[in-house]
Amino acid sequence: MVDGPVVAVRGEAYREVPPELARFTVTASARDRDREATLTRLAERAAAVRVLLDDPLIDRRETGDLRVRPETRRSGERVVAWHGSVVTTVTVTDFTALGELMLRLADQDQVEVAGPWWSLRPDSPARREARHAAITDALHRAREYAEALGAQVTALVELADEGAGAQPMMMTRAAFDGGLPESTPALELDPQPQPVHASVLARFVISEPVLS
Q1: DSSP-assigned letter for residue 209
Q2: From CA 211, how far away is CA 151, in angstroms rounded?
Q3: pLDDT (0 to 100) of residue 55
Q4: With 80 as the cut, is the pLDDT of residue 120 above it?
Q5: Mind spelling out the 3-state secondary structure of 5-48?
Q6: Between 168 and 9, residue with greater pLDDT
Q7: Before 116, cis peptide (omega within 30)?
């Protein structure tokens, strides 16, 4: 049972911090009238991509969304060509040579590169710091209200996370298709700051107000 007056407040904190992760996708494609030729070309191009992705700069790579489909005429089911594609998602934490890596990949035949998408790690210290700051803000507000009443904060009754968490990761999408010149140009990328927001609800017991 709460003994004394209670003040309820919301504490918030907002930060913009440098991103910790960058993700981009690499899509290798092939098209031919013959299905076997399509599959062979797709496998060769995917293998060439894997060779370039064997780089210490890369923290993680994941292959997904493999597609092989027939192209038919508008009328009927006659197959006139086969399309194939495979997508690899790449994650890096070192951004120093990210632009160069993406352009090297885009220089491959029938390869599309899209990204990067900037984000924070799920366990980023920035989120922890924002939560701490939100609690500090709640306590500061409670003390301001108590002071206005001639009272003091004496105890914490309840603390609840509003669950706002971090804002969705900022995204910058750039698409590159094969066909770059032999001398790959330099590409400078500017990582986008990531917004981090934390919000808590808190109830504090205060001493008896001095109302005059």
Answers
A1: P
A2: 10
A3: 84
A4: yes
A5: CEEEEEEEEEEEECCCEEEEEEEEEEEECCHHHHHHHHHHHHHH
A6: 9
A7: yes
CB 95 within 8 A of CB 191: yes
In CATH, what class is 18-122+169-189?
A: alpha beta
Task: Note whether 20 and 93 are within 8 A (CB).
Answer: yes
The band of 30, judged by pLDDT with boundaries at 50, 70 and 90, is: very high
Question: Which three-class secondary structure state does DSSP give residue 58?
Answer: strand
Q: How far is CA 136 from CA 17, 146, 201, in A?
A: 19, 15, 12
Q: Are 172 and 82 in contact (CB under 8 A)?
A: no
Q: Where are the chain's structural domains?
A: 6-16+124-165+198-206, 18-122+169-189
Average pLDDT, the chain: 87
